[in-house]
């Protein structure tokens, strides 16, 4: 029997996040006028992170964080070959939590980052210059951790594929093989999706800085 483990909103989130993160990494390396697109991709990541956090509570069974929390006991059972279940295994859950945490930090710190030349994040006017300098430094330094984490994720996909396990397919169609007695996922209906989408949209609006008053123009020089 095949059941849908990964619901459609989670799958859309996953692939949109892949596009947004890839776009952010490509444009930051291109620099120049591409920085405007880097900012747009960063805002997209902020919205996606907000969506995932809420969907981790309101989504269907295997989308909920409580369903795949990587406790020490679960990790121990996994390494002893005693873990059974659908969705993320404990090791995969660690990767998910690490990825979400790092991507969220990068996206949020980018809102306050500045290159001190021509580009500044949409919320730089909301904090002090020292805070901008600190977050800008952290934003640049943790970029390399993103490359490392993405590389490890791709390596895990290859290793699982060599072992005969498919990770990409289920994240496209959402289905996995299960026993006849396996309980089907619950929750994550239309109302939950709309609520999650509205919260994510509100977060993007707050992150774009349009609510921050523009500074008063400099006084005209006296002649």
From TrEMBL:
<keyword id="KW-1003">Cell membrane</keyword>
<dbReference type="InterPro" id="IPR051542">
    <property type="entry name" value="Hydrogenase_cytochrome"/>
</dbReference>
<dbReference type="InterPro" id="IPR016174">
    <property type="entry name" value="Di-haem_cyt_TM"/>
</dbReference>
<dbReference type="GO" id="GO:0005886">
    <property type="term" value="C:plasma membrane"/>
</dbReference>
<feature type="domain" description="Cytochrome b561 bacterial/Ni-hydrogenase">
    <location>
        <begin position="5"/>
        <end position="174"/>
    </location>
</feature>
<dbReference type="GO" id="GO:0009055">
    <property type="term" value="F:electron transfer activity"/>
</dbReference>
<dbReference type="GO" id="GO:0020037">
    <property type="term" value="F:heme binding"/>
</dbReference>
<feature type="transmembrane region" description="Helical">
    <location>
        <begin position="37"/>
        <end position="55"/>
    </location>
</feature>
<keyword id="KW-0472">Membrane</keyword>
<feature type="transmembrane region" description="Helical">
    <location>
        <begin position="91"/>
        <end position="113"/>
    </location>
</feature>
<keyword id="KW-0812">Transmembrane</keyword>
<feature type="transmembrane region" description="Helical">
    <location>
        <begin position="189"/>
        <end position="207"/>
    </location>
</feature>
<dbReference type="InterPro" id="IPR011577">
    <property type="entry name" value="Cyt_b561_bac/Ni-Hgenase"/>
</dbReference>
<protein>
    <submittedName>
        <fullName>Cytochrome b</fullName>
    </submittedName>
</protein>
<feature type="transmembrane region" description="Helical">
    <location>
        <begin position="144"/>
        <end position="162"/>
    </location>
</feature>
<feature type="transmembrane region" description="Helical">
    <location>
        <begin position="12"/>
        <end position="30"/>
    </location>
</feature>
<keyword id="KW-1133">Transmembrane helix</keyword>
<dbReference type="GO" id="GO:0022904">
    <property type="term" value="P:respiratory electron transport chain"/>
</dbReference>
<dbReference type="Pfam" id="PF01292">
    <property type="entry name" value="Ni_hydr_CYTB"/>
</dbReference>
């Amino acid at each position: 029997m095949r059941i849908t483990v990964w619901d459609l909103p989670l799958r859309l989130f996953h692939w949109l996040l892949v596009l947004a993160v890839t776009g952010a990494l490509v444009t930051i390396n291109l620099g120049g006028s591409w920085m405007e697109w880097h900012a747009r991709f960063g805002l997209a990541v902020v919205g996606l992170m907000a969506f995932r956090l809420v969907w981790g509570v309101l989504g269907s069974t295997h989308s909920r964080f409580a369903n795949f929390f990587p406790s020490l006991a679960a990790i121990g059972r996994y390494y002893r070959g005693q873990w059974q279940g659908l969705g993320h295994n404990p090791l995969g859950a660690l990767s998910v939590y690490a990825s979400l945490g790092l991507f969220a930090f990068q996206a949020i710190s980018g809102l306050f980052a500045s290159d001190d030349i021509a580009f500044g994040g949409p919320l730089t006017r909301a904090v002090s210059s020292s805070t901008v300098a600190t977050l800008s430094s952290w934003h640049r330094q943790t970029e390399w951790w993103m490359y490392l984490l993405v590389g490890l994720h791709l390596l895990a996909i290859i290793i699982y594929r060599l072992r005969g396990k498919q990770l990409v397919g289920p994240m496209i169609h959402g289905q996995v093989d299960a026993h006849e007695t396996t309980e089907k996922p619950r929750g994550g209906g239309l109302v939950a999706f709309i609520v999650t989408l509205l919260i994510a949209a509100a977060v993007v609006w707050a992150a774009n800085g349009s609510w921050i008053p523009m500074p008063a123009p400099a006084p005209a020089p006296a002649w």
